[in-house]
Amino acid sequence: MIFYLKINLINEMLLIDQKIFRRAKKGIKSCPFNLYFFQSLQVGSLSAQNVFENKSKYLNHEFMSIKNSLFIENEFLKLIKIGVLRREVDGQGLTSKVRITPIGRQVLDNHTDLFTKKISLIKKLITCLKYKILPR
Question: Which residues pair with 94 in a beta bridge?
Fold first, then answer.
């Protein structure tokens, strides 16, 4: 009986891990940030203001029309919530900068095709409409 419970617990943990990584992969794929953004986070940290000021470096082309850094901050919060990013901490506490988490690193290492896969025209259109029409 105990052996069965241990096996069952291990299977449940594996399912949870798969769900975490699937959700992280989906979050990275659907976020406005490009590969260079995530590569930069692997060696340092970035703030929403820095990303906003350097939109052409860090954002996908569909998101060049954003008007302020609040949009980027909201996208940071989404990726923090799913475990891809975390807030940087200094001696005073949390900062406005984010860093990549081990889960985020693992997803990027295991799925090198995340940023090279072609996105269908319909998905691009939906993304553009979603971010240009809905207030952020």
Answer: 89
